[in-house]
Amino acid sequence: MASWTWFHRLGSPKWFYEKTSRWLPWLALVTAAIMVVGTVWGLAYAPADAKQGNSYRIIFIHVPSAFLALVCYYLMAIAGAVSLIWKMKLSDMAVKSCAPIGASLTFIALVTGAIWGKPTWGTWWVWDARTTSMLVLFFLYLGVIALQDAFESRENANRACSILALVGTVNIPIIYKSVDWWNTLHQGATIKFTEAPSMPPEMWQPLFLMIIGFYCFFALVFIMAMRSEILQREKGTRWVELIVKHRLNKLTNHDD
Fold first, then answer.
1. Which listed site, 149, 165, 180, 243, has its alpha carbon 20 to 30 Å from 201?
2. pLDDT the model gives residue 192
3. How far apart are alpha carbons 21 and 7 in whole angstroms?
């Protein structure tokens, strides 16, 4: 039984809030450093592409945002499964926190993809398998967001969001394999775990750094959203009241 103690701790809003208080400053610093280095490296020092020229540089935003949009959905679906099976409050908060972050990442991926598509394909949008399935992903995120306020009962809203998150996972492999399964204008994956990158090191190295930076940024924003949701849902508990009182005292002392 003791070996599962860590799992039950993860389900404790108080434990999560207290632990992440120490992580946030360092995570913010690391995120800022990686993002700045990766952006400058990719936009200013990476060589121009032989065919696309400098227009390809948008991949340093497009690829990481698209990649994290899929990862975020998987995380939301896993949290939804945990909510349905073990009824953990923290997993419900994770589902709610993931949805707007994932929607934002998907929107960025769609917009940057359209900007990249104009000089590459000659059009802002094509209804090919990859772009269409990414648009479906965006609507799935919006659906989860909408369901949060569609029920008077929070328990029913949590259950509906979890079910939609799980059902929507069928779209993720479609997005990932769409360029292989169908004839599409969208190019294949630039970086694969099973193969060497299809780009020279001068290009994929800053791209890889940006992906790491986006991971750190996602973790930072997700933790902040979770902490905000925890304070909102646990506002009647003594430990949250103590935190609010402590913050009010600090503000009062600062004003004095």
1. 180
2. 61
3. 19
